[in-house]
Amino acid sequence: MNRMSLIIAALFFCLGAPAHAWDEHAGLMSQMMDTNAAKSRSYLKNSVVIPSEDEQKKEIEILAKELDVNAEKIPTEKPGKLSIKDYLQGELSGTATIDEPDMGMDQDLPDSTDPKNDRPWMGGKTGPTSQGYRHMFFPGIEWLSPIRTLQIPFRSIGQSPERILKIHAISEKFMQDKNLYWALRTRLWELHYVQDLHQPFHVMQVPYIRMLPWKDLFHGFVARSTQVVANFHYAYEGLIRESVNEDHLSTLAPCFELPTSSAATPMNEQVVHEIVVLARNSARQIGIPLYQLWDKEMKDPTINLPEGMGALDYYSYLHANPEEENQKAAVAAVEDLLKTTCELMKHVSLLTFSELDQLMSTSIITGK
Question: What is the pTM of this model?
Answer without folding.
Answer: 0.91
